[in-house]
Amino acid sequence: MSNNPKAVDILLGALNAGRLHHAILLYGSSVSALENVAIEVATRLLGSDPRKHPDCFELRPQGKARMIRIGSESEKIGTEWPPNTMRRLLHDIAQTSSLGGNKVAMLYEVDRMNMHSANAFLKTLEEPPKGTTIFMMTTRPNDLLDTIRSRCISLRVDSEITPIDDEEWELWLADFKDWQKALMGGIGKKIKLVDAMMRCYGLLARFDKILARLTDDIANISENDTEELDDEVVDAIISGERRALRKRLFGEIEDACVSCALGGEGVPAVKLSRAVEALEKSAVLTELNMTDAPALEYFMLTSLRIWGR
Asked: How many other C-beta atoms lie within 10 A of the C-beta of residue 25?
């Protein structure tokens, strides 16, 4: 059962009334919450777990650029478009249902469509295949084309983001807060510049190791749950989960930064605002495929400059 009953109830209510839209855009802050809602409603449409159903078709970003590709003629094997591409998905959902019932398409991280994929997909939204329900999931709905959003029913999926339960991460956050408080007290007053730099790069090295370990844990779980899937699809699933994990880590760093400022006396609001803005820019850089450590390094070095003035 989904932990987001409101979203599920709305969609199942529309389904029971025969008014479920053919294209549903699910958006919110939690990737897993979006997937849970889509899976629960798709289960009702298909009569069984959609992840093992022949009439459920999935599409995920792939490759280093983390994009949903359209698929090229050179990649075709006979008449078959390459798997996990937009053309393969559109071909599959245009076919007659294998079991004579509904068909479902599930598109993950739809904000990662390139222009070719988006334009091809738009045509299907305008003339959807009969008996097909399309679920689109994203944490960045504003990055979608307006022409795509206007052809969907959009539903926000609220969720509570639980803290990351990891002892090393909790120790890292505590040390990060101590570093932030020292910076806020003034470089040269509460902490020497050389010590601030040494602690900065110590935190960065530890962050990289923690993220790598947590990502390895995700990979092990995902591979166990996806033994029958293509390697590229498994890689796409792991990349999506890593992206969600990274977003949660950066969110907790932002909370730690703000809590340090709120707990201090005489902390200039403008400096806090600039520090949070720098962290948000770092998060955006990771969305643009900058690796995690350099993006966090940008934030921490910017913090040194902000609080050191």
From this structure: 23
Is the separation of the CB atoms in 24 and 30 below 8 Å?
Answer: no
**C-alpha distances in Å from residue 142, one per residue of 109, 149, 207, 240:** 12, 9, 30, 18
Is the confidence at residue 162, as pLDDT, over 70? no
Distance set, CA 174 to CA 44, 184, 203, 259 (Å): 45, 15, 11, 11
132-138 and 153-156 strand pairing = unpaired
Please give the helix or strand (H or E) that residue 90 lies within, else none.
Answer: helix 86-93
Gap between the Cα atoms of 253 and 255, Å rounded = 5
* DSSP type of residue 243: H
Q: For strands 56-59 and 132-138, give the pairing.
A: unpaired
How far is CA 238 from its chain centroid? 11
**Maximal CA-CA distance, the chain:** 74
Confidence label for 307 from pLDDT (cuts 50, 70 and 90): confident
Q: What is the C-alpha to C-alpha distance for residues 284 and 277, in angstroms, rounded to an integer?
A: 11
What are 105's strand-pairing partners? Answer: 57, 134
Instruction: Measure the CA–CA gap between 57 and 226, rounded to whole angstroms.
Output: 15
Residue 171 has pLDDT above 80, yes or no: yes
Cα separation, 32 vs 62, in Å, equals 18
Residue that wins the pLDDT comparison between 141 and 262: 141
- State how far the alpha carbon of 68 is from the alpha carbons of 14, 61, 272, 276, 308, in Å: 29, 4, 37, 31, 43
Half-sphere exposure (Cβ direction) of 209: Cα atoms closer than 13 Å: 9
